[in-house]
Backbone:
């Protein structure tokens, strides 16, 4: 039975409730009166239930879809302005004991090159990332208690935070590792991680079990309840997501929102981020063998409907997607993107040779970070390297209340400008620097408070003179 506050996965991601929701949305997808009511509610910017959201996702009335896209764009602007947060993944190890059929790291892949970075190799990777200008990383490892135990992850986090190369520093380490115990989540929290990220892959239990035939990840309940254990362990910023293409996207969309509702109902704070990866080609993975792939138009609608349904949750799109696709999604709700990513173990120091195939997926957007920053600014966005909320302890419900009240604009916009200035001084190409300086000059007028504007101007001047010890 569906119970949003139940600790059991099969209650809060209840299969019958999802089937009822799918039927309800199918029946009402042309119900203009209901769609208008839902859009009215969405305009209040307090979110939608999974049922309401699915009606919008299914709606096929062109003028209403137009309204949905416009509202998503407006909500994106209201909550996030024109800032886009930048990050990069860092793959530590591709040893894995699971049998996930969509990932080349699965245990039965005997020809993939297995690698695990030593602390010295991590140091070199981090220096390479700092030299690009990155300040925020997402750590990735396969699940392997022997090769990648929690102690290895903790030691790696310590190494990463300790490296200060020239003006570089990694200020926020997000972690994407397998579902684990409350005790291990507590250790990750104590190590100072930012967000704990774990993709559900699919919310459909039967498909989940088939797609994860072997290994600890086979346990649907243990995986689905991971965020509850993370919260219990003190991690209040969690990132959820599904791998689109594995199951019917409508089912996944309902499950994703039910998961967000569960976290909000039980812990008073929904997910910090939602990621929307689609299956990509990799070593022995052919995306065409999966039946549920979604086209770019459906994907865009999905992103717009997530934006409307959970307005205060950040949305992430990685380099799995092409420049063109990312451009469209940025308008509709995406607030965080990766740039200059390498998806192989050790790939920042030594780009992979064709015969070394340790990448988790083929990257679509292969541009450098500088090219991505340059492109974002030319498209009217402010690339932000800010990590201030995390560094000031504004996580979980403290971050959410700031976000929900709209107050976030007063700190995020100035911080985005100041961290962009740091990037321009330390890492940008001549062209990017010129574009960035002009953008900052224009954007400074949009800092709402005169006093804050004065502080920003002073800080920008200090950054130009080499000062770097701000709490961004
Ligand atoms: S998705 Fe994760 S758990 Fe599954 S095989 Fe890949 S690395 Fe291992």
Residues:
């Amino acid at each position: 039975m569906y119970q949003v506050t139940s600790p059991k996965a099969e209650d809060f991601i209840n299969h019958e409730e999802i089937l009822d929701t799918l039927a309800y949305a199918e029946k009402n997808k042309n119900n203009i009166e209901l769609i208008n009511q839902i859009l009215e509610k969405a305009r209040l910017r307090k979110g939608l239930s999974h049922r309401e959201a699915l009606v919008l996702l299914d709606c096929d009335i062109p003028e209403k879809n137009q309204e949905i896209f416009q509202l998503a764009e407006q909500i994106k602007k209201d909550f996030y302005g024109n800032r886009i947060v930048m990050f990069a993944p860092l793959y530590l190890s591709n040893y894995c004991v699971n049998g996930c059929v969509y990932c080349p790291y699965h245990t039965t892949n005997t020809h993939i090159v297995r690698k695990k970075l030593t602390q010295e190799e991590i140091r070199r990777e981090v220096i390479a990332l700092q030299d690009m200008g990155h300040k925020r990383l997402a750590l990735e490892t396969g699940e392997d208690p022997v090769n990648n135990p929690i102690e290895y992850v903790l030691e790696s986090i310590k190494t990463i935070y300790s490296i200060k190369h020239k003006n570089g520093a990694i200020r926020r380490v997000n972690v994407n590792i397998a579902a684990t115990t409350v005790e291990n989540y507590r250790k990750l929290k104590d190590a100072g991680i930012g967000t704990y990220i774990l993709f559900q892959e699919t919310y459909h239990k039967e498909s989940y079990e088939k797609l994860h035939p072997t290994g600890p990840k086979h346990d649907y309940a243990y995986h689905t309840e991971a965020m509850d254990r993370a919260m219990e362990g003190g991690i209040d910023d969690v990132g959820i997501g599904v791998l689109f293409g594995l199951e019917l996207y409508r089912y996944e969309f309902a499950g994703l929102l039910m998961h967000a509702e569960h976290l909000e109902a039980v812990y008073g704070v929904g997910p910090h981020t939602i990621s929307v990866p689609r299956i990509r080609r990799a070593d022995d993975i052919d995306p065409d063998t999966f039946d549920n792939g979604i086209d770019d138009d459906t994907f865009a609608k999905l992103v717009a409907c997530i934006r409307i349904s959970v307005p205060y949750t950040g949305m992430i799109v990685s380099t799995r997607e092409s420049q063109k696709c990312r451009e469209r999604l940025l308008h509709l709700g995406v607030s965080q993107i990766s740039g200059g990513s390498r998806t192989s173990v050790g790939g920042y120091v030594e780009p992979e040779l064709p015969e070394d195939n340790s990448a988790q997926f083929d990257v679509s957007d292969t541009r450098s970070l500088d090219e991505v920053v340059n492109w974002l600014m030319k498209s009217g966005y402010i690339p932000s390297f800010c990590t201030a909320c995390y560094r000031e302890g504004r996580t979980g419900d403290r971050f959410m209340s700031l976000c929900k009240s709209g107050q976030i604009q007063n700190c995020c916009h100035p911080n985005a400008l100041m961290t962009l200035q740091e990037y321009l001084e330390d890492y940008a190409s001549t062209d990017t620097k010129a574009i960035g300086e002009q953008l900052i000059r224009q954007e400074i007028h949009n800092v709402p408070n005169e006093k804050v504007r004065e502080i920003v101007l002073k800080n920008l001047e200090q950054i130009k003179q080499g000062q770097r010890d701000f709490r961004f």
Q: What stands out?
A: The CA atoms of residues 425 and 464 lie 7 Å apart. Residues 96, 98, 100, 103, 105-106, 142-143, 178, 217 surround iron/sulfur cluster (CB under 6 Å). The chain has a mean pLDDT of 95.
